[in-house]
Amino acid sequence: MTSKHRSDETQPAESTSEVRAADVALDTAGGALAPAIVPVSSQSGDPGHEQDSVIRKIVMGNGFVSVLAVIVALILGGLLIASTDAAVAKTAGYFFARPGDFLSAAWSAMTKSYIALFQGSVFNPRQGLQPLLETMTVATPLICAGLGVALAFRAGLFNIGAQGQIIISATLGAYVGFAWHLPFGLHLLVVVIMGVLGGAAWGALVGVLKARTGAHEVIVTIMLNYVALFLLDFLLNTAAFRRAGDNSPISPRLDDSATYPILIPGSRLHLGFLVAVLLTYGVWWMLNRSTIGFEFRAVGANPIAARTAGVKVSRATILVMALAGALAAFGGVAQVAGTEKVLTGGIAAQIGFDAITVALLGRSTPWGTFFAGLLFGAFRAGAVQMQIQTGTPIDIVLVVQSLIVLFIAAPPLIRSIFRLEPKKKNKKTKAAPKAALAHASGGAK
Amino acid sequence: MKLELKGISKAFGTFYANQDIDLVVESAQIHCLLGENGAGKSTLMNVLYGLYEPTAGQILVDDRPVSFRGPADAMAAGIGMVHQHFMLVPVFTVAENVALGAEPTSFGGVLSMDETRTKIREISKKYGFDVDPDALVEDLPVGVQQRVEIIKALVREAKVLILDEPTAVLTPQETDELLDIMRQLKAGGTSIVFISHKLREVQAVSDVITVIRRGKVVGDAPPTASATELASMMVGRPVSLSLDKAPAQPKETTFVVENLTVRAANGTNVVDGISFDIAQGEILAVAGVQGNGQTELTEAILGVQEHVTGSVTLDGKQLLGLPVKEVLRSGVGFVPEDRTVDGLVGPFSVAENLVLDLYDQAPFASGISMKPAKVVENAKAKIEEFDIRTPSAGSAAGTLSGGNQQKVVMARELSRPLRLFIASQPTRGVDVGSIEFLHKRIVAERDVGTPVMIVSTELDEVVELADRIAVLYKGKLVGIVPADTPRDTLGLMMAGVGPEGGSDDK
User: Fold this and answer.
1) Pairing relation of β-strands B110-111 and B30-34?
2) Which of residues 308-367 of A touch B (CB under 8 A)?
């Protein structure tokens, strides 16, 4: 009765026992914590165990799994590239006669594509490091929005709403950028502030609904994404947002004074990237060094304990969603005031959704998210080059991205591929569902 | 049926939960497995019940080696298990629950429940269980639900019955009834493996006691062994079971609860008009069977319950209606009843957990900036002071043993000047050695003149610590009695029967 009663207050969607069950499942899956039946008391006294746990941290630490997930996804993507390649298909026809032809064709299809991807995203002899600058440009909004998703994750909230938050901030920022005409410097500042406030409000709305009414943030954010998207579509068809004498749904260009200055001439890299770097550091500091971050993390890891320790869980929920919205909003501002400079219906592209992947890949740590954002920026920037050079469709990159998510979402998969767990551990993992089953069936024959 | 375990080992990675365990359960005997939490009792029983595959060793039934690939095999061999947490479907009837998993069917797969009903009636009659096959399980008291579990095993013709901590959820009276049932089952030829860490019950009912410590058999003891001997075997060093406690010297009464009522979501009063007070330098222990409003009572004082009426004053200040943080700031130390649920943040480090409710105060923070160095410094001091066994201050609290986790919570709550100390289940799931330590700390807090409120479902603990005992039943205060009240009286009070001569308030 107790748990039921409590759950009503703090976690409308889940009962305490469910939370516990989930914990157990996580523990067993993660292998990081021993399940309840294993007495940890004796483990902690064992000197060998300490060493073991250090190795486990490095090997099974989430970051390492992320790296492996990327590698496996790239390999599978490479196989896919090879399988769609014309030369490979031809050599497959006489595979048994000369298997070497087939293998070398497959290898060259893979490597050529990935070399093109690299050249399009980091360096090539013709343009030097120019592609890297483009990667950083594309990564900027991904990093910002990824931070927003990651921050919410850390507080136990699944923020699917980065897309909507980006759209709202881009819309507000853009409007201020082209409709108001303010002095240089001040104008950009106002654009950023308006955009960020818009995103923060859009996020806070989710937090308020969750904290006050118990509405689930996933559903609310998904729906608010639609609201934001169609609101933008609607606005782009009003006179206020259209160019004079033009019927197409594109806003006027933002004033020059309203856009992020270019950092390196000849590229599109703008000040927004530096802002993203600062935000990454800021989020790291907040999470690890501030009382607010302590509250967020406590609420994320155990809301009931946090509440018992005096943390106002509902206030933390609202605050973290507002901050998550604000972070995503910096991405929206970077898009509209940095990269695109006009507002269109597709201003947010898929950034808000890719941000979820970026945050996952970055294991919800600020710097992890930063580098994951750069990686995805590189995929984006390099994919075009890859298609031009080798004819490999851009969609392959999307497949690789999706595979990364798949592997991250299923860490045991990666562990079993790389045999990161000793066999006994696997047995233990198996024993848990087996036990559960047996209980459910009452030990039936 | 004779059951024998020979050299059973069960390893998880490099860690041995069971190592080279030999155990012989003779026919028609009550064999007790005694050990602290985490000693490996449950792992061993899970091996025996087919849930785990042993790393090494053999199970013999009537001298024939067997291997169980699952509970189904174990059941077929005549081994039944009653888990600590019942495996019953609440919305099913008793008969449906008993049939579940081995449903008797007639032609064409039609369920025939009559067969099950008949069997239940037979067994009920034989052992004097008062169980109606058609009652819904959710309507039954916990003690009767437990009998349903036992019937479930007996219907499947269990010759050896494993009872895993069966008394944890029972009142003292229900416990006595269970012990009687166990004796009857034994008389009927059933062997029982009785897992417990409560010495009193173990002594009352066992034929043989096997003590397990750190996954190994320490040795067998006769049921005549004294509690101190058994406890020392469990812990591996001499333990004193009785607490040296000076008589209380109550001073000014500073904590007063008046007519406190907590209304639950379904409209019933889970705490119903409770009034009591605690003086400085006094321990009031709240006794009662789990789920009789203790949780709600303490949480109402802390301020995390909604729909609370009445009055709670500390040093003349009204606490009701204040946010939790304010209540804590008023000098309330609060040890919640379940450290893993509301006492600790498992993935957080020990150091972080030690400041879980102080993180935004000096010296751990200035403004919104935390001072990690101070947090670690504090942790090192507390780890030393409370003898918290942890690899380091940075280790995740969730990886510590129950006793050490509880020490973390206790260290945190006792580390500031207190005006009131509330501890729920201060030693639940804590090893005997740590219990001794924690009890001493609680008494020490009393002796510096703090009003102390202990909530415990363990009568032993209540009697041990209390200067006065308050008994709760269905949200109501049955009475407040002196600490030397006989156990029988307390047991009756826990079942809702008031003490003779009315409540003795001070």
Assistant:
1) unpaired
2) 308-312
B 145-174 residues inside an 8 A Cβ radius of A: 152, 156
3-state SS class at B246: coil
From the list B71, B342, B365, which residue is nearest A305 (CB)? Answer: B342
Chain segment A329-361, per-residue pLDDT in tens: 999 999 999 999 999 999 999 999 999 989 988
Q: What is the pLDDT of residues B443-485, one digit of tens each?
A: 999 999 999 999 998 888 899 899 999 999 989 999 999 999 9
CA distance A220 to B198: 50
Is residue A87 within 8 Å of residue A109, measured between CB atoms?
A: yes
In chain A, helix, strand, coil percent, each to 5?
A: 75, 0, 25
Buried b (16+ CB within 10 A) or exposed e, B124-142: beebebebbbeeebeebee
Cis peptide before B363 (omega within 30 of 0): yes
Strand B452-455 relative to strand B283-287: parallel, antiparallel, unpaired?
parallel
CB contact under 8 A, A298 and B323: no
How does residue A7 score in pLDDT terms, banded at 50, 70 and 90?
Answer: very low
B272: CB partners within 8 A, 6+ apart: B261, B293, B474, B475, B476
Contact across the interface for B370 and A289, Cβ inside 8 Å: yes
The DSSP bridge partners found for residue B258 are B311
Q: For the CA atoms of A397, A402, A403, A407, what is the dihedral angle to 10 degrees?
A: 140
Q: What is the C-alpha R_g of chain B? A: 25
Interface of B with A in 250-309 (CB under 8 A): 264-265, 270, 291, 295-296, 302, 304, 306
> Within its chain, how far is the Cα of A250 from the centroid?
28
The vertex-A29 CA angle with B68 and A436, nearest 5°, equals 40
End-to-end CA distance of chain B: 55
B397 touching chain A per CB within 8 A: no
Q: Is the ipTM of this complex over 0.90?
A: no
Nearest residue to B395 (alpha-carbon basis) of B331, B437, B351, B454: B351
What are the CA-CA distances from residue A292 to residues A285, A302, B304 (Å)? 10, 15, 21
Strand arrangement of the beta sheet that strand B191-196 belongs to: B79-82, B160-164, B191-196, B30-34, B208-213, B216-221
Residue A421 has what pLDDT? Answer: 54
- Rounded CA-CA distance A388/A116 in Å is 9
Of B50, B214, B346, the CB nearest to A301: B346
If you average pLDDT over each of A319-333, B192-206, B277-291, B450-464, which comes out highest?
Answer: A319-333
Contact, B422 vs B334, CB < 8 A?
yes
Within 8 A of B293 by CB-CB distance, chain A residues are: none
CB distance from A48 to chain B under 8 Å? yes
Q: Please answer yes or no on whether A34 and B12 come within 8 Å at the CB atom.
A: yes
| Nearest C-alpha neighbor of A119 from the set A397, A400, A384 | A384
Residue B6: count of CB within 10 angstroms of its CB = 15
Statement: residue A9 has pLDDT above 80: no
* Contact status, residue B193 vs residue B45, Cβ threshold 8 Å: yes
Indicate the burial class of B160 (C-beta count within 10 angstroms; 0-12, 13-18, 19 or more): buried
CB contact under 8 A, B72 and A50: no
Please tell me the distance from the alpha carbon of residue A200 to that of residue A179, in angstroms, as a whole number: 22
Angle, nearest 10°, between helix axes A351-361 and A313-333?
A: 120
Residues A355 and A340: their CA atoms lie apart, in Å, by: 18
CA-to-CA dists, residue A327 to A19, A216, A268, B202, B339, angstroms: 29, 21, 21, 60, 35
B236 interface with A at CB cutoff 8 Å: no
